[in-house]
Amino acid sequence: MSQEIRRRIAELSEEIREHQFKYYVLDKPTISDAEFDKLLKELAKLESAHPEFKLPDSPSDLVGGGFATHFKQSDHIEKMMSLDNVFDDEELTAWFERVAKVSDKNTWLCEVKVDGLAINLLYENGKLTKALTRGNGVTGEDVTLNVKTIKSVPHELKGNKVPALLEVRGEVFFPVAAFNEFNDSMEESGKERFANPRNAAAGSLRQKDPRVTASRPLSMVVHGIGAKDGASFASQSEAYELLKSWGLPTSTRYKVARNEKEVREFINYYLEHRHDVEHEIDGIVIKVNELKIQEDLGFTSRAPKWAIAYKYPPEEVVTKLLDIRVSVGRTGRVTPFAYMEPVKVAGSTITNATLHNAEEVARKGVLIGDWVLIRKAGDVIPEVLGPVIDRRDGSEKKFVMPKKCPDCGSALRAMSEGDVDIRCPNSQSCPKQLIERIYYIGSRSALDIDILGYESAAALLSDKLIIDESDLFNLTAKDLAKSEFFLKKDGTLGKSAENFLIALSEAKNRPLWRVLVALSIRHVGPTAAQALAKNFGSIAAISKAKEEELAEIDGVGEIIAKSIKEWFAIDWHKSIIKKWEKAGVLMEEVAKESTEPQTLLGLTLVVTGSLNDFTRDGVNDVIMARGGKSASSVSKKTDYVVVGDSPGSKLAKAEELGVPVLNESQFKTLLAKGPKGLR
């Protein structure tokens, strides 16, 4: 049973990260908000019940997808949180009850939830100096030049008592009427229409040329405050009035409710009038109005406890299911999806929706040729709810999962016992896997090669400039001249080819952890890769490490360790390493001398529970900076177990094995003086 739970957590984490990548980077989500939240809730529930199986880079801890595109990254001064969601009155009531345990004397600020792209604006001495996307909540993309082209965004604050420093949070959006006109003009000029206003806003804001952004009728509304110096207010509503007085674009569609009844009246009003709003909305945000009570309630790792998003029920329509097809992903996962007659839902035309796997198709009971009920909440591609049974005429056909890969013809199979998903095992030469992997190498999560997009990856393979990723760093100008993709109309190499070669050269010197991510080792994301790089220092050492040694690393664990060993056991994978290394790709961690006293040299520590003065990542960094090893599980080789609040099973394991247990105060002594300080 435990192995099944461990495997399900890993599968959910991988699936959620893939959907985050499609949503935040590609701006092409393949599942609905409701379905994504369902996956996230399932993961959170399993992790809560089985914290020992939680992955270190679990998407349940992250705000947004943490992905970036073309722009340099920069940190927010104050973390930019996300919001937890509720979907019905029962869940809303439960949230009210949680707040009431801290305060029952507060009022509520209710506002429409703008369906746009989250932005953080930084004003210093009244002047707009930086605009960042949400990113992962800590670091976002710098889109300052593009944001400055939005007419509703002031370059300088005006009015009385303008603060010395102010972060304001808001949403960039496409007004619905402007979006429809813009989409029509795109179609007239022979260009692809945007699926919906949110995608159009995201795509417009991520243009490399600010002039393109300026040509698009974007707007913005601010709804929150981050870091501040020189501004004070007692309530959320007072803050909104101040923001408005300084010239910032605030929404008029909010209300201070005195009680829960008025909150529900506000929710019901906009449920009925949601399409009367000038921009798309997908729900209502409810905030505790009083800031002192907000402070008392505090935050979780990703969201404030004093605010909630009430998501409206998805809109539902009926359309014809023409076919069920499959797509192959980067790791070989084969996913069935519904191909439907085009239908308009919530302002966008839909033709495709994911069906996840064969079991999900069977559970929904849909047949090819069915009339199906689909739904869509706001801006996302819908989910198929199920068939309209009474509209069947007997011509419908049962979907059968293909036995062979549609892209390479390989026999499909589950890669391990109990797997729900089937995969194409031909990872070496399956065309679809190849293009997805090479595209991923260029992503910000991996080697950050700006020019290596999906089209260029496809061109490299189709024109046979490379056979697989192993050839990537051997490309020359002579090679690129063989592909029309890199040529100008006159047949000479374009600027993109030159930039591509420069980008490839720069990518050779990326940190070791990025190289690990770029290898597309299943389950190895940035967090695990960083832990491996810090603890082993080179690809060679990682490849030679025993599975149990890998599993001991905090941030790795048994599932990832097994995946790493399986990856390095394959000969053509080893060939990728050899070719990259020969081409000059950095395969070792560049050592940085620690200025900290090496009080933990040779010691292995496990930290369990929440510490007051250390974050989860921070405590690991502190241990390693002082020469110690931070492990994820307790064994006889563990020297100390550091215990915080709610320690869990690791404390029991330490007591069982007789491993010394330290509280936070003792841990600080150990850091300062080493083991001698504890005597």
Outline the structure in words.
This protein is an alpha+beta fold. It has six domains: 61 residues, Orthogonal Bundle (Helix Hairpins); 239 residues, 2-Layer Sandwich (D-amino Acid Aminotransferase, Chain A, domain 1); 112 residues, Nucleic acid-binding proteins (OB fold (Dihydrolipoamide Acetyltransferase, E2P), Beta Barrel), CATH 2.40.50.140; 77 residues, DNA polymerase, domain 1 (Orthogonal Bundle), CATH 1.10.150.20; 72 residues, 5' to 3' exonuclease, C-terminal subdomain (DNA polymerase, domain 1, Orthogonal Bundle), CATH 1.10.150.20; 75 residues, 3-Layer(aba) Sandwich (Rossmann fold), CATH 3.40.50. It has 24 helices and 20 strands. A five-stranded mixed β-sheet has the order 2-11-10-3-9. Helix 1 packs antiparallel against helix 2, helix 12 crosses helix 13 and helix 16 packs across helix 17. The protein is globular. The relative contact order is 0.08.
Helix content: 25-40%
> Can you tell me the number of structural domains?
6
As laid out across the biggest beta sheet, the strand order is 2-11-10-3-9
* Category by helix and strand content: alpha+beta
**CATH-derived architecture of the largest domain:** 2-Layer Sandwich
- How can the largest sheet be summarized? 5 strands, mixed
Give the CA-CA distance, first to last residue: 43 Å
Average predicted confidence as pLDDT: 87
> What is the gyration radius calculated from CA atoms?
26 Å
The CATH topology assignment of the largest domain is D-amino Acid Aminotransferase, Chain A, domain 1
What's the CATH H-level homologous superfamily of the largest domain? DNA ligase/mRNA capping enzyme
The number of distinct helices, counting runs of at least 4 residues, comes to 24
Share of β-strand residues? 15-25%
* CATH class term of the largest domain: Alpha Beta
Secondary structure: number of strands = 20
What best-fitting shape do the alpha-carbon axes yield?
A: globular
Low-confidence stretches: none
